[in-house]
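Lecture notes, part 5. Sequence design as translation. It can be helpful to think of inverse folding as translation between two languages: the language of shapes and the language of residues. The source text, in structure tokens, appears below.
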């Protein structure tokens, strides 16, 4: 139970990163939301939406943060089991 209390915030952070990554992957939320405030002009020859780079950026940040949280969680779990033999 003590281990869960130590990792509780990290688990919530990992879940939040997964949600942000999946929302960015749909291409309908993050970039479209930012496009409302900073509209861009779509070029007729491009099949990729002009605000799509925001989705890719959000996915990259969420993936990096999620991987960092997973590494920290693994480190703390190993540390917990080594000190509580």
């Amino acid at each position: 139970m003590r281990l869960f209390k130590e990792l509780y915030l990290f688990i919530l952070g990992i879940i939040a990163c997964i949600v942000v990554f999946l929302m960015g992957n749909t291409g309908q939320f993050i970039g479209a939301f930012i496009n409302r405030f900073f509209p861009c002009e779509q070029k007729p020859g491009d099949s990729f939406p002009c605000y799509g780079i925001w989705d890719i950026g959000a996915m990259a940040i969420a993936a990096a943060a999620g991987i960092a949280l997973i590494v920290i969680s693994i480190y703390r779990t190993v540390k917990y089991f080594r000190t509580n033999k």
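The translated text above is only one of many valid answers, since several sequences can fold into similar shapes. The longest helix spans residues 52-83.
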